[in-house]
TrEMBL record:
It is a peripheral membrane protein. It is found in: Golgi apparatus membrane. The lineage of its organism: Eukaryota, Viridiplantae, Streptophyta, Embryophyta, Tracheophyta. GO terms for cellular component: Golgi membrane; Golgi transport complex. Keywords: Golgi apparatus, Membrane, Protein transport, Transport. Belongs to the COG7 family. One of its GO terms (biological process) is Golgi organization. It holds the Pfam family COG7. It comes from the Eukaryota. Its main location: Golgi. This is Conserved oligomeric Golgi complex subunit 7. The keyword Membrane applies. InterPro entries: COG7.
Amino acid sequence: MMVDLGPFSDEKFDPKKWINSACKTRHPQDSLDKHMVDLEMKLQMVSEEIAASLEEQSAAALLRVPRTTRDVLRLRDDAVSLRNSVAGILDKLKKAEGSSAESIAALAKVDTVKQRMEAAYETLQDAAGLTQLSATVEDVFASGDLPRAAETLANMRHCLSAVGEVAEFANIRKQLEVLEDRLDTMVQPRLTDALSNRKVDVAQDLRGILIRIGRFKSLELHYTKVHLKPIKQLWDDFDSKHRASKLANEKIEIERLSNGNELQSSSPTVSFSSWLPSFYDELLLYLEQEWKWCMLAFPDDYKTLVPKLLMETMAAVGSTFISRINLATGEVVPETKALGKGILDISSGDLPKGSKIQTKHLEALIELHNMTGIFGRNIQHLFSESDLRVLMDTLKAVYFPYESFKQRYGQMERAILSSEIAGVDLRGAVTRGVGAQGIELSETVRRMEESIPQVIVLLEAAVERCISFTGGSEADELILALDDIMLQYISTLQDTLKSLRTVCGVDHKDLGLDKKEGAQYSRKLDLISNEEEWSIVQGALQILTVADCLTSRSSVFEASLRATLARLSTSVSVSVFGSSLDQNQLHVTSEDGNGEPSLGGRAALDVAAVRLLDVPEKARKLFNLLDQSKDPRFHALPLASQRVAAFAEMVNELVYDVLISKVRQRLSDVSRLPIWSAVEEQSAFPLPTFSAYPQSYVTSVGEYLLTLPQQLEPLAEGISNSDSNNDEAQFFATEWMFKVAEGATALYMEQLRGVQYITDRGAQQLSVDIEYLSNVLSALSMPIPPVLATFQTCLGTPRDELKDLLKSDNGNQLDLPTANLVCKIRRVNLDQ
């Protein structure tokens, strides 16, 4: 059995565990004693071998110690010798450094002198060469070798730059400018021929000549001049077709008159909106062909040459483009078409008074802009390889004809919305004869309620027009216009609401009537039948639906407007830094890994981003608005929101006045009823001294209050369009029921406080009246006010027991001020 000595070197060696483990490895037939004896013997033999080996190695190590000592001493001597040698070398280097620094300084001066001498030599050579070139340049031009002439002029300019501003060469400098213009003039006809006939090699050579003399701008101008002419012909084609169709129609009209009014069909007049897509298609095809040809002829310049051609084209046709757009917008409306005017003329006030911008005008403008937008996207795709700055300048040129319209967008949208709001049927209520007020009220409320979704649709259409036409760049002006229009609309609703007060019979307070006139007014209301009265109540309750509809619709529209602003803040990604907006500060939404705009990012360049680059102040204002819209507390229509809340308050006030008017009418003279001071009649028989039934004034009020829930139920059902709103509708009906009941109770208690004197008979009758009203309130699940309960208790108590009642209560159940007032009314002296 081999003994593994590895476990003995472990720091956590456990002898007991090792012995137990060794015992487990014994053969099952061997006895434990025999196994332990063998294990002990093997361990003893191993230990003896280890001791012998250790002794042998120790002896060998002792023999090597003297030799190692001698080696260490020799190495120490060698290190001391090396240190002395290095110190000597360092001393020599320090001495050499001082002398070499002086030598290097001297060499540097010599080198500077050498460079100056070489520069002077080269300058002299350039001066000599300049003189020689100046003398031979005419011969070069006479030879007609344009490349050689260009090379000569380039060398002359190089020599002039070398000699600097030397008076002796001033004439040569002027001569060089004249010669460069002369060479440019010689190149132009050949370049025209090469560009017109698609001569790639010739065009490249001529380009090289112009580049050699620093006249690349001349290449741009000449390229544009050559190709601008056929594009202008495309643009002028509209005028020729328009005139041709006009002459044809005039000829047909003359023939019709000469043939005795016989029917003849006239050819349709060519409209700008139908012609513009074909112009864009032909222009795009022309630019695509030029792009492909320039890639071969001018591989280093095609990315700027073709966009430059388009920019110059739009600049050349810009004024007529604007005029045609203006007239095209006027052709969609017969009035402006007859006058030959457009949307710009109307907004400028050039048309007769009463001429208004209509939705059709702006829709026609947006339709033309959409055509241009399609062309702009095609241009983006065609010029996708161009620099971002070039691409942005090109798109600005494409959209330039619409800039004057966009600057007036807020004014135009405000005029359109104002006209459309004025066209909504919101005429005020007109007072009719007795029996027709309810019909008038219902019709007016119906018109008010139907107008709300109509107006919201008009506002939503305005938002869509703003996005379609300006890409959202005029969102700030749109917000102001929408706010103003909402104020205009709500003001009309408020005026209509005021007219309803007269129809509902609750405007005597607004008219400033005194008590006598108010009583006369109340007597007029007595002529109204119960059916008419309830129809007025039902109509007034419907006004609550108008307020609820206005509040909810305006809230939803404002939330939609905030969502639109949020989308704009992410889609148009323009950053404004400092006081200027530079094209380099344009960030598109899609970028590659290097932070450069990728093709997908360039597709995000929309009309708003392109336009805002030229109007940094407007961009700053717009993006301040977009940042504010991210705040949950932001109101897109702040003034309109406040006016909506004010309108809801006016509606609640009117509805409450209508619901409480019958109560106010029935309770108006309660404090002055003669029964309160009536003297008891003498009779030979024991008869009750008061009526066991409540009087008609209080029963009328009670019946009205008990019937009111039935009037509120249809309105609550109208609000509850789904099961989820049932609780809200029930709360709404209960709230108004409590509000009217509380108002009726307050009016009644105010009348009770106005009673000056009451007899025992009157007190008993009034107690019965109060008890009836209390039962009505209980039936409506309303708590009985302590003041009213005190009135009933004190009035129902016999006069001679009233003082004892107050002493025994001590304010536990009775309202003491009210109890003292009742005592005063019943002439009970509490001081005795």
